[in-house]
Please model this.
Amino acid sequence: MSKAQAFFNRALKGGEVAPRARAVGPGVGSMVSSRPRRGRLAAPLLLGTFLLATTAALSFPFAFAAQEATDEGDSGICEEDGVSAHDAYDLGETLIRDVMRNANATNEYLDVLADISDSDFHLERTFLSPGSLRALASVRRWMEDAGLRTWLDSVGNLHGRLEQEGEYRDDARVLLLGSHIDTVVDGGAYDGTLGIVSAITAVKNLKLRLDSDASLGLRRPVEVIAFSDEEGLRFKSTFLGSRAVSGTFLKNGYLQATDSKGYTLASVLETVGLSNSEEDIAKIAMRREDLYGYVEVHIEQGPVLQSLNQPVGVVSAISGQTRMYVQVDGFSGHAGTVPMDQRRDTIAASAEMITRIEDKCNEFPLSRENMLVCTVGEFNVFPGASNVIPGYANFSVDIRCKDDAMRGEVVSLVKRELLQISKRRKVECEIQMKHSAESCQSSPTFTESLRRGILGAHELVGRYEEAREKSRKTGPPDPDPDPGGQGEGESLLWDMNEATVPVIASGAGHDALAMSEVTPIGMLFVRCRDGISHSPLEHVEPRDVTVASLSLYQFLVSEALLAA
Ligand SMILES: [Zn+2]
Model:
């Protein structure tokens, strides 16, 4: 048996080798690439920036009941709970157009990052690879353009903080936003990057709002982090960046981890000019008492929002996970000579076990609500010949659920069922527990604030579309008719009301999971086409990108602004 088991012990499939890099300075542009680009947008970034700078001075024929953004004593301000996310009606026409333009620029940023790769043929950025460093240089420019103070920490996370002079109006605990800059091999253009750049444009809009009204102040500092590693491709350890910030990097011994070329993580840090001293890395860790929370925007990587026909949704929890390996031991024999009633066929037994797992998962009460999913993703058989009854098989079982108690019940049930089947079929069955992680519940405060943020974005878009419509009817022609970028004559508005804001669970782990060890978390999911991710086919509609940025902006309005 040990021989057979050894046969199945699959070597880790590596493959990616990020070249040994020298630090790349800021300002390095994107490389020429034969890869397909993301969908193009309505207006080039430079034009958008130019218009942003000039629209404030121009009076476009925007047919609002014109109320410029000097909302003194307006009803949208609530001193106890910050500024209402429903402040669209408090904004003047110019400000709304500028907010839309900034939100739409998220798409331009995604385009730039989609072209920065370590490969000429596909998108690939691993931990501190040359491509990652070039991408971070671009992100740094955008952060600074948004008014953030930036710095790179010693594991390569890029931070950008919005601060104000003097006392914060609530407390000095920081509200963190962010996601990861690294990708998988041949990855998509949105996984990770969307969370970084939508946070930058949302904070840029927050600053715009702040500057538009002297009575407003920051409740607390807001910081965007582009984490250097989440996918774990290079060192086979996920969440390297966010684990440094949440303070669990050193205790996991990552400095000694080696990549496929044999370089240690410590030597890679040194090569790119970062400090690999434990003392400096320990300083990256943020203290619980200094943090207000962490909120991440991420593509859903699943089909739920698409099936609900909604661009964005709030994540209520990141599912817990159990991973098991099942070994089924029977007896090999001649396919022609052993009668059916005398066989100990491990494939037939495994097939029954696997369909039973699927049936139980489907039948389980409230399984849909709790995002209970069971997957057998790996199956091996020995000896694997058409004329031999298979004597050995093994397979993986991955069970995820937002509710840990339910997951525990399902795991027990599956174990019981598999043992019953093995007994009846006269095969031996051994179940090994490989991994178990509890679910991570989002902060109810953030869940509600993000829900209100989506509603606020919907209201803001409604106000914007209303103004465009009036402008179209009453003229004169608008020189910048499409600041939201959805295409002239097309509406950015979507069908939604208070009761239909999606609140869903995440079956995948994210940086938020690592950050939950040190602070409350919240997440906003963005619809992606057919749920496809970790693939060049990954796609998010530009309008959904804009809506994500607006929703996060409206979340920030309520969580990070306060009127005097
Ligand atoms: Zn991701």
Remarks:
- Residues 1-37, 39-80 have pLDDT under 50 and may be disordered.
- The two ends are 73 Å apart (CA to CA).
